Amino acid sequence: MSSSLNFLRGIRIADFTWAGAGPFCTKVFSDFGAEVIKVESSSRVDPVRSGGPYKDGVPGINRSGYFASRNSGKKSISLDLKSEEGKKLALQLIQESDVVTNNFGPGVMQRLGLGYDDVKKIKPDIIHLSMPMYGQEGPLASLLGVGMTISAVSGLLWLTAYGPNDPVGPGTHFPDHAANPYHAAFAILGALRYRRKTGRGMRIDLAQVESTINFVGPAVVEYATTGQEPVQTGNRSVADAPHNLFKCSGDDAWCAIAVQDDTQWRALASVINSPELLQDQTLRKSENRLKRVDEIEARVASWVATQTAADVVQILQQAGVPSAIVARSKDLLTDNPHLAERGYWQQIDHPEVGETTFTSPPYLIDGKRLELKRPPLIGEHTEMVLRDILGCDANEIARLKAEGILQ
């Protein structure tokens, strides 16, 4: 692998994160060559290991696709962090690491003796990342939550609702897989650069709600300057119409249509065979189409309902009207030539589930894709880490295992 794809080689992360946002952050580092050692416990398994989808529908803590996609390329050690020896081993690992990460609630790492003030005594230049919902301090710090909660309190569910009192929203996607992991990753990269220049470590306290609010920034500014709540548009646009999803012929088949200017509007009106709409001069202006959006969308929906999604998209794109099939995950995997051509999927051989399809990181470096490595089995690298990094001999490892310290 070229150096540009492996530029984090030599960086070691003691990774105490679990569930969504935290592991997705540290995955960025393992993808680029860092050694990420995930600290786990078989007595308190990462909840994502216990959730599907499972390969072939067979459950198991090493079979979760959800876990696999967020932990590719990492190592896994299993420790009892409630025991004094388990904590001691965790501190030893941190002492041999560049970064330590967690996304627990405030105070958890401190109670384990692994907070920033604890670890900087043994590793003064450590970079210590925490990712609680509201941060480690402040009047709301004691409130706990995960991706869906963060979507709600940040306003994402409200802004993405189809209408009033209908907060369907994007679930955990933006907090767990966009805003928080990548903001945290950039913060760590900045801290590593700072350490390289100054020799000093850094404490990073990333409040996930604050981070997620970046996605609703324009709405926050609008309310702050006007005092008016933004309009809930659902899949519609405030700039033009029609702009929505429409039900096509077939089982749960949908397409997206997004008219963006008057030329596209005239093309759409011609295609759906609505001469009265085409000849209505007032509808040649977007502000008038917005006023009559319900009427217009009803006419479009009536035409679309008689066509397959593929036919609708082909007809409209040939006419110059932006449109696309609303694809299922399976469709993206099997029927999207653009993703396949760009190497968006990788096959990885896994010891429990066999060869499995993984999603590549959605970017190219020097025109190349990162080569993913498989996710770890729980505790798979415990003995190797204790022996090669922490210097434990075979007798000590056997004793720790017998005493339940290595779970």
Briefly characterize the structure.
The chain is an alpha/beta fold and 407 residues long.
What does this structure look like?
With 407 residues, the chain is of the alpha/beta class. The chain has a domain of 241 residues: Rossmann fold (3-Layer(aba) Sandwich). The chain is built from 19 helices and eleven strands. The protein has a six-stranded parallel beta sheet, with helices on both faces. Strands 7-8-9 form a three-stranded antiparallel beta sheet, with helices on one face. The protein has a two-stranded antiparallel ribbon with strand order 10-11. β2, α2 and β3 form a beta-alpha-beta unit. α6 packs across α8. The protein is elongated, with a radius of gyration of 26 Å. The mean pLDDT is 93.
Based on secondary structure, the structural category is: alpha/beta
Q: Shape from CA axes?
A: elongated
Provide the CATH top-level class of the domain at 3-206 and 366-402: Alpha Beta
CATH architecture of the domain at 3-206 and 366-402: 3-Layer(aba) Sandwich
Let me know the number of strands.
11
Main attributes?
11 strands; alpha/beta; Rossmann fold; three-stranded antiparallel sheet; elongated; six-stranded parallel sheet
Helices and strands in order:
Elements: E1 12-15, H1 21-31, E2 35-40, H2 65-70, E3 75-78, H3 84-95, E4 99-102, H4 108-111, H5 116-122, E5 127-130, H6 147-153, H7 156-159, H8 173-198, E6 202-205, H9 208-212, H10 217-226, E7 243-247, E8 254-258, H11 262-271, H12 275-279, H13 286-291, H14 293-304, H15 309-318, E9 323-325, H16 329-335, H17 337-341, E10 345-350, E11 354-359, H18 382-388, H19 394-402
Helix pairs in contact: 1-8, 6-8
